Amino acid sequence: MATSAVKVYGWAISPFVSRALLALEEAGVDYELVPMSRQAGDHHRPEHLARNPFGKVPVLEDGDLTLFESHAISRHVLRKHKPELLGTGNLEQAALVDVWFEVEAHQLSPLAIAIVVECIFTPFLGRERNQAVVDENVEKLKKVLEVYEARLSKSKYLAGDFLSLADLSHFTIMHCFMATEYAALVEVLPHVSAWWEGLAARPAAKKVAEFMPVGTAGASKKHE
C-alpha cells in the first residue's frame, strides 16, 4: 500500500490534533495519523522537535511542507482542498469567516478548555479539581455564549447561512466541553444548541469524535 503524502503527528484524543483531522476529513483528503505518546515524551524527542521546535502537536507534513498549530493546519488544508469552507471568492464572507475563526480561538476556546481541564483531565490524573477556576470560567463562558446565541439567531452558521471553518473549528473543543456537567450552558440556548447538534451530526465530526472518548474520564458526574 502506498504511503499517504499527508501525515499528521500526534495523539488523536487531543482536541488540537483532532481539529486538524476534522479539516482533512471534511476536505476528503487521505492522510496517515502517525501515533505518538505524550506519556513517553515523544513530542520532546529530537525528531519531533525538528518538525516543531516548540514540541507541540499536531504537526502536518504535506509533501515537502511541514506545518504546526492546528488553526494554521486547518486553514491550509481547506485553502488547498475545499476553499469554499473559507468563504473564498466572496470578500465579505471570507472576512466573517476570519472574524469568527478568531472569536473561537480567543474568546470561546480558552474558557472551554479551562473547564475541560479541571472537569475531565485533572480528575482523570487523580488530582482534585479547582472549582474556583471552573466557576470563574463558567461565568465568562455564559456571556460569550449569549453573544453566540444572538449571532446564530440571525444566521444558521457563524459567518452567515453557509457552513465554514469558523463553525468547524469549534467542534473538537466543544465535544470535550459537552462531556462535562456544564453542557447545559449550550443546551439552554436554542440557536446555539441547534448549531451544535448540526455540527456534531456531520459524518466527519462523528468520525473524529471516535478518537476522543472523553466521557470515560468521569466528566459526566455532577460535582458536589
Automatic annotation (TrEMBL):
<dbReference type="InterPro" id="IPR036282">
    <property type="entry name" value="Glutathione-S-Trfase_C_sf"/>
</dbReference>
<dbReference type="InterPro" id="IPR040079">
    <property type="entry name" value="Glutathione_S-Trfase"/>
</dbReference>
<feature type="domain" description="GST C-terminal">
    <location>
        <begin position="90"/>
        <end position="224"/>
    </location>
</feature>
<dbReference type="InterPro" id="IPR004046">
    <property type="entry name" value="GST_C"/>
</dbReference>
<protein>
    <recommendedName>
        <fullName>glutathione transferase</fullName>
        <ecNumber>2.5.1.18</ecNumber>
    </recommendedName>
</protein>
<feature type="domain" description="GST N-terminal">
    <location>
        <begin position="4"/>
        <end position="85"/>
    </location>
</feature>
<dbReference type="InterPro" id="IPR004045">
    <property type="entry name" value="Glutathione_S-Trfase_N"/>
</dbReference>
<dbReference type="GO" id="GO:0009635">
    <property type="term" value="P:response to herbicide"/>
</dbReference>
<dbReference type="InterPro" id="IPR010987">
    <property type="entry name" value="Glutathione-S-Trfase_C-like"/>
</dbReference>
<comment type="similarity">
    <text>Belongs to the GST superfamily. Phi family.</text>
</comment>
<dbReference type="GO" id="GO:0004364">
    <property type="term" value="F:glutathione transferase activity"/>
</dbReference>
<dbReference type="InterPro" id="IPR034347">
    <property type="entry name" value="GST_Phi_C"/>
</dbReference>
<dbReference type="GO" id="GO:0005737">
    <property type="term" value="C:cytoplasm"/>
</dbReference>
<keyword id="KW-0808">Transferase</keyword>
<dbReference type="InterPro" id="IPR036249">
    <property type="entry name" value="Thioredoxin-like_sf"/>
</dbReference>
<dbReference type="Pfam" id="PF00043">
    <property type="entry name" value="GST_C"/>
</dbReference>
<dbReference type="Pfam" id="PF02798">
    <property type="entry name" value="GST_N"/>
</dbReference>
<dbReference type="GO" id="GO:0006749">
    <property type="term" value="P:glutathione metabolic process"/>
</dbReference>
<dbReference type="GO" id="GO:0043295">
    <property type="term" value="F:glutathione binding"/>
</dbReference>
